């Protein structure tokens, strides 16, 4: 996890603003503490490292619960898109925004260590986007998402798609308050990624096998890849598509609409039971 991967603290910025300090108020009632702490100090015992990891995740989960309440209160459908760098997440997002059109208003939170390049690509589609730069950080956490939601201010009934930092390790452990994690794997990466990075594929509800238009040109065994994914996560759903050519995108759109309808039903059920 982040105990040894090189994550830094105090370097996160949202849309180029100064690095945010932990401790300020969110309109959707986050209870702020110190934020996540990473220990790289030599001589720290394994027991202490485990305790620090548990503290990090417990604090993150409290922020995630606050985000989840915010999404529920506003009828917002949230997805956390995770993958290696270069899998095609941004292309998938821009195509999805255009393809869903007036059926669903999509807002985007973009996570990268540096630059606002991807947020700019999203804004060119007409969708609202907020860029979160994590500095040395290797993942988005729920606290960052809470701050980004303040800037994004998504309208009721819309969707928030979170493009996480390109990394198949740390984002698996961090709940952001999303309805689903969606892992994107391109056919240029190798079919054994699910067994190399099992935590990520175990945490995901859906695997999008992207860039299938390149299958004639690469050595990639689709059947084996799906077998590997279901070995680590028997419940994972798999869709094959190309965000570049549009092949298979309609199945992705239908999955979004179905998952959103089920999530909204859950929101209403929860509110009725209170």
In words, what does this structure look like?
The protein is an alpha/beta fold and 274 residues long. It is built from eight helices and eight strands; from the N terminus they run E-H-E-H-E-H-E-H-E-E-H-H-E-H-E-H. The chain has an eight-stranded mixed β-sheet with strand order 1-4-3-5-2-6-7-8, sandwiched between helices. Helix 1 (46-74) packs parallel to helix 4. Mean pLDDT is 87; it is low at 21-40.
Which key phrases capture this entry?
274 residues; alpha/beta; 8-stranded mixed β-sheet; 8 strands; globular
Order of helices and strands: EHEHEHEHEEHHEHEH
Strand order of the largest sheet: 1-4-3-5-2-6-7-8
- How would a crystallographer describe the biggest sheet? 8 strands, mixed
| Overall residue-averaged pLDDT value | 87
The number of helices is 8
Helix content: 25-40%
Shape: globular
Instruction: State the separation between the terminal residues, measured CA to CA.
Output: 37 Å
SS-based structural class? alpha/beta
Low-confidence stretches: 21-40
Number of strands: 8
Rounded to an integer, what's the Rg over CA atoms? 18 Å
**Strand share of the residues?**
15-25%
Please specify the SSE layout and strand pairing.
Blueprint: E1 13-14, H1 46-74, E2 77-83, H2 89-100, E3 106-112, H3 117-123, E4 129-133, H4 142-152, E5 159-163, E6 180-186, H5 193-196, H6 198-203, E7 206-210, H7 222-232, E8 237-240, H8 249-273
Parallel strand pairs: 2-5, 2-6, 3-4, 3-5, 6-7, 7-8
Antiparallel strand pairs: 1-4
């Amino acid at each position: 996890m982040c105990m040894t991967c090189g994550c830094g603290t105090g370097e996160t910025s949202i849309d180029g603003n100064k690095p945010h300090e932990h401790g300020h108020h969110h309109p959707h009632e986050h209870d702020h503490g110190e934020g996540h702490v990473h220990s790289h100090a030599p001589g720290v015992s394994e027991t202490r490292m485990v305790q620090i990891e548990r503290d990090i995740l417990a604090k993150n989960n409290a922020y995630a619960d606050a985000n989840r309440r915010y999404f529920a209160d506003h009828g917002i459908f949230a997805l956390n898109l995770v993958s290696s760098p270069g899998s095609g997440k941004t292309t998938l997002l821009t195509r999805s925004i255009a393809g869903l059109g007036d059926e669903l208003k999509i807002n985007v939170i973009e996570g990268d260590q540096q630059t606002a390049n991807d947020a700019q690509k999203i804004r060119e589609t007409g969708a609202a986007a907020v860029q979160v730069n994590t500095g040395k950080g290797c993942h988005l956490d729920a606290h960052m998402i809470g701050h980004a939601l303040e800037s994004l201010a998504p309208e009721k009934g819309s969707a928030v798609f979170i493009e996480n930092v390109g990394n198949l390790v740390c984002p698996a452990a961090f709940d952001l308050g999303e309805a689903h994690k969606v892992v994107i794997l391109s056919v240029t990466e190798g079919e054994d990624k699910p067994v190399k990075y099992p935590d990520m594929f175990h945490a995901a509800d859906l695997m999008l096998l992207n860039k299938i238009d390149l299958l004639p040109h690469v050595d990639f065994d689709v059947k084996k890849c799906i077998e590997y994914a279901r070995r680590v996560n028997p419940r994972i759903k798999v869709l094959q598509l190309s965000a570049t050519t549009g092949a298979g995108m309609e199945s992705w759109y239908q999955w979004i609409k179905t998952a959103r309808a089920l999530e909204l039903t859950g929101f209403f059920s929860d509110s009725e039971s209170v």
